[in-house]
Amino acid sequence: MTADIQFTLTPIQLLLSALLLVVAVASLRLFRNRLLYRLFFIGIVFTGILFVAVPILPVYLATKLGVGRGVDLVFYLLFTGFLLLIAVLYRRLLQHDTMLTQIIRQNAIKHHRSPGTVKKTEV
Amino acid sequence: MTDKVFILIPSFNEGKVIRQTIRSLGDQYHIVLIDDASTDETANAVRDLPVYYLRHDINLGQGAALQTGMDFALQQGADIVVHFDADGQHNPADIDQFIHVLKTQKVDVVLGSRFMREDDLQAIPRLRRLLLRVARLVNGLLTGLWLSDAHNGFRVMNRQALRAIQLKENRMAHATEILMHIRRKKLHFIEHPTHIIYSEYSQVKGQRWQGAIDILIDVFINKYFR
């Protein structure tokens, strides 16, 4: 005897899953040459689709982990991921800031205007 | 042997006073004006003056302007560098005195202090005095250097210090960063009294207490997140 397993998605589950897939594709395109970022985003999207498709899963995990409701678990995960993302992006921003400063500095030095008359310094 | 002395003046929209500040320095030094993308008449105001004129394409902040000036001075073979404010707050007569201290005391950096003479201390507006005492405490905790003053822009340094100090902090927190470099690179330093002129102009242009909080945050980020 075989059991018939019916796995159907409601319209809202389908819509949310489709949206998450769009985010996944966008992130793959967005993070060029950034394998870690891509894996991070795909991981989030995959988890999201799983939670949408099987709503009992976050509830089950939350009970196992002792964080109460499934929605609490999702909130904690999102909050942590959000903070991590801000930290990573802020670090990138600082790196760009440093590069920009160096370019502007080199340009300023290269195109400096010298005094018309050279001053001799004797102290 | 003569020393090549470079006076570095970072400037942002100081067109009204920059000419007067530069002329007050006389003609015995190499003067470097680092225009931090001013949008006023600064460039024209100094066009006929005997200064090296460097301009940032984008406003980066005083720390970045000073580092640009220090890199330039190093390239030009400077022996001694002086940090000097554009708004006329500093006393040109202090320059030779500080250079004398730098040489006779055999130190790498001489830091100006407004807290070593009673007259200089009384010249500081009350609220600013309070802020400076808090900044002194923060500097001490972050750098381990317990100075009498904090964020005094008047400094004199030799070539060794010029090489050792590489500012990453573009904005006002560079003053604390300089102390961090002094500590880490084991540079010898001394404080020397200096008189700051708090004119109506400089007070309007000067830092406010909100700026002090920003500096604190910048120092923290620079220390732990870069």
UniProtKB/TrEMBL annotation, chain A:
Annotated keywords: Membrane, Transmembrane, Transmembrane helix
A Pfam family: DUF2304
Domain of life: Bacteria
Transmembrane intervals: 12-31, 38-61, 73-90
Record protein name field: DUF2304 domain-containing protein
Automatic annotation (TrEMBL), chain B:
Boundaries of every Glycosyltransferase 2-like domain copy: 7-164
One Pfam family from the record: Glycos_transf_2
Residues annotated as transmembrane: none
InterPro entries documented for this protein: Glyco_trans_2-like (IPR001173), Glycosyltransferase_2 (IPR050256), Nucleotide-diphossugar_trans (IPR029044)
SUPFAM superfamilies documented for this protein: Nucleotide-diphospho-sugar transferases
PANTHER family registered for this protein in UniProt: RFBJ PROTEIN, UNDECAPRENYL-PHOSPHATE 4-DEOXY-4-FORMAMIDO-L-ARABINOSE TRANSFERASE-RELATED
Name of the molecule in the record: Glycosyltransferase family 2 protein
Phylogenetic lineage: Bacteria, Pseudomonadati, Bacteroidota, Cytophagia, Cytophagales
